[in-house]
Design brief:
Number of helices: 2
Shape: elongated
Order of helices and strands: HH
Radius of gyration: 15 Å
Keywords: Membrane, Transmembrane, Transmembrane helix
Structural class: mainly alpha
Length: 66
């Protein structure tokens, strides 16, 4: 059995950190290959964190008999 509270808390921290870094990158973006790599990986991380948080909510709200 997974500790969903801990997993969701970690995903939320990762989401907040990633959102902050994307905001900083939007100001300092200089179109170098490293900036594009950071942008791409940040967007992928953002999407996976959102999917993970949504899945955690579905697991939490699932009826106990199912």
């Amino acid at each position: 059995m997974a500790n969903w509270y801990f997993i969701r808390a970690c995903l939320l921290v990762a989401l907040l950190t990633d959102t902050f870094n994307l905001g900083r990158l939007s100001i300092e973006f200089s179109r170098t290959p490293s900036d594009w790599a950071v942008l791409f990986s940040s967007v992928v991380t953002l999407v996976f964190c959102l999917i993970g948080l949504a899945a955690g909510e579905f697991v939490r709200n699932k009826p106990k008999g199912s």
